[in-house]
Amino acid sequence: MSEPLIQATNVGKTYGQDVILERVNVDVHQGEFITLVGASGCGKSTFLKMILGTEQSSTGSLLLNGKPMPNEPGPDRGIVFQQYSVFPHMTVLDNVVAARGFQKASLTGLLFGRQKRQARDDAIAILEQVGLGHALKRYPHELSGGMKQRLAIAQAVICKPKILLLDEPFGALDPGIRADMHALILDLWKTHKLTIFMVTHDLKEGFYLGTRLWVFDKLRHDPQAPNAYGASITYDLPVSQEGRDTLDEITRQLGASRPTIPYKETA
Ligand SMILES: Nc1ncnc2c1ncn2[C@@H]1O[C@H](COP(=O)(O)OP(=O)(O)OP(=O)(O)O)[C@@H](O)[C@H]1O
């Protein structure tokens, strides 16, 4: 098998005295679609931020293509948050062109001449793909929640990331709209050959979208010091088509069984 795209070895994260994550050991290969589930506050977003480069691991090693994860975001890693992060004073089209501008000319975000024409053409193509081709001239306040999230996804994808990080991107959307967004994200994943990490609170969504599902949980608890231990990945489940078909059964087993990755005293 090829070299892992991301390799985490005994990764831990602390904020002051609080241990958030500990002993995270995973390899991720290009093209995987990882979904992350776990209790609120257990460190899922923190793990995404470490891949984005806005947070650094406190212990262990986190590698991207065999080299230490850069300490800042880069064009190879895009992110979409639950709260719509678009520029309110720009049209839909200009929002996506600007995202490319900040990538290519980060200080001013301004593009000129051929670069600008290319960015416009690419932006129109990606907006067509996310279903906003009819709304190029609208402003964000004229869009529904689902449309704003499509716009945020288009902003991330126009930068041609290898890795797309999705932090509960559909959490604020109605169930019917979420189904459309699922189809969109699977389409983008395939056509742009992305590696996706997606945090969700919806186990069903995690099984439906992912090729692999991670459960974050604490394996050690100290009732006297609740923040003394951090969460690890306690289940690392490959999701096959059969897995999707027998979702109810897997959900039942997850609730009833013990973690498949027991805690090991490794250095
Ligand atoms: N910059 C920070 N400084 C101090 N503590 C932080 C910081 N960022 C996050 N935390 C803490 O780290 C813990 C994990 O936060 P994180 O957002 O990663 O959890 P999460 O699993 O994504 O939660 P949720 O599902 O609610 O979004 C929380 O207790 C949070 O308060």
UniProtKB/TrEMBL annotation:
<dbReference type="InterPro" id="IPR003593">
    <property type="entry name" value="AAA+_ATPase"/>
</dbReference>
<keyword id="KW-0813">Transport</keyword>
<dbReference type="Pfam" id="PF00005">
    <property type="entry name" value="ABC_tran"/>
</dbReference>
<dbReference type="GO" id="GO:0005524">
    <property type="term" value="F:ATP binding"/>
</dbReference>
<dbReference type="InterPro" id="IPR017871">
    <property type="entry name" value="ABC_transporter-like_CS"/>
</dbReference>
<dbReference type="InterPro" id="IPR003439">
    <property type="entry name" value="ABC_transporter-like_ATP-bd"/>
</dbReference>
<protein>
    <submittedName>
        <fullName>ABC transporter ATP-binding protein</fullName>
    </submittedName>
</protein>
<dbReference type="InterPro" id="IPR027417">
    <property type="entry name" value="P-loop_NTPase"/>
</dbReference>
<keyword id="KW-0547">Nucleotide-binding</keyword>
<feature type="domain" description="ABC transporter">
    <location>
        <begin position="6"/>
        <end position="243"/>
    </location>
</feature>
<comment type="similarity">
    <text>Belongs to the ABC transporter superfamily.</text>
</comment>
<dbReference type="InterPro" id="IPR050166">
    <property type="entry name" value="ABC_transporter_ATP-bind"/>
</dbReference>
<keyword id="KW-0067">ATP-binding</keyword>
<dbReference type="GO" id="GO:0016887">
    <property type="term" value="F:ATP hydrolysis activity"/>
</dbReference>
